């Protein structure tokens, strides 16, 4: 419960900071000229896609925070908790996801300077590393099963499959969005669209990386 309260306080602080930057104290009746919104921008000048992504990240973050709270409470609730052996491949998977995040960051930087080849290379590196991460997670499942920990064998194993599956599903959704961005890049889409698309992909990948590091640390703790 305390983790949820901390998370909500953090989200509230971010929202308050964002609102403070939206010219709430402006006096439009004193301004000269007629304000015109840029194409694809909301009333606050923020692209709807970017705002939607941050709302989605906040919701996913709340969901993962609930999982973390439930994991910690269940671990100390009774004596039936058996520590799960951590598959060594998870360390390699973490490195793959970090490399994937770096690839998306490079694609974002390339989009800012208009380097289409750099965008394509960054997206390819990020996407292939993400797919390798998903394959590594499946391999981790196989290793845990071979150790005798099925889905319903123990509360710790149930949480392991649940947490890795939820994170993996969100990564699959990101791969779909990445594929669409790569397709637009190959089709020669305008750079303005590619800049926003690569920024959204990179932001989401950085979030997934941070979320996985937290979840991985939780699994190591358990």
UniProtKB/TrEMBL annotation:
Membrane topology: Multi-pass membrane protein
Ranges annotated as spanning the membrane: 51-73, 118-139, 159-179, 200-220
Pfam families the record matches: COX3 (PF00510)
Heme-copper oxidase subunit III family profile domain boundaries: 1-222
Compartments (UniProt record): Cell membrane; Membrane
One GO term describing the cellular component: plasma membrane
GO biological process, alphabetically ordered: aerobic electron transport chain
Record-linked Gene3D superfamilies: Cytochrome c oxidase, subunit III, four-helix bundle (1.20.120.80)
Keywords, sorted A to Z: Membrane, Transmembrane, Transmembrane helix
UniProt family annotation: Belongs to the cytochrome c oxidase subunit 3 family.
Stated name of the protein: Cytochrome-c oxidase
Species of origin: Neoroseomonas soli
Lineage: Bacteria, Pseudomonadati, Pseudomonadota, Alphaproteobacteria, Acetobacterales
């Amino acid at each position: 419960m305390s983790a949820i309260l901390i998370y909500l306080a953090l989200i509230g602080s971010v929202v308050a900071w964002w609102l403070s930057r939206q010219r709430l104290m402006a006096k439009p009746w004193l301004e000269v000229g007629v304000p015109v919104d840029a194409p694809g921008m909301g009333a606050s000048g923020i692209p709807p896609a970017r705002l939607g992504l941050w709302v989605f990240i906040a919701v996913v973050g709340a969901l993962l925070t609930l999982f973390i709270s439930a994991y910690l409470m269940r671990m100390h609730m009774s004596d039936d908790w058996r520590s799960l052996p951590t598959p060594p491949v998870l360390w390699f998977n973490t490195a793959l996801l970090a490399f994937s995040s770096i690839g998306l960051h490079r694609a974002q930087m390339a989009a800012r300077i208009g380097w289409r080849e750099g965008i394509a290379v960054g997206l390819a590196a990020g996407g292939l590393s993400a797919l390798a991460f998903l394959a590594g997670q499946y391999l981790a499942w196989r290793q845990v099963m071979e150790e005798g920990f099925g889905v319903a064998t123990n509360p710790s194993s149930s949480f392991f499959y649940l947490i890795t599956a939820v994170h993996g599903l969100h990564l699959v959704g990101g791969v779909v969005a990445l594929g669409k961005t790569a397709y637009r890049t190959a089709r020669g889409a305008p750079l303005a669209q590619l800049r926003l698309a690569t920024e959204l992909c990179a932001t989401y990948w950085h979030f997934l990386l941070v979320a996985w590091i937290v979840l991985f640390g939780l699994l190591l703790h358990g």
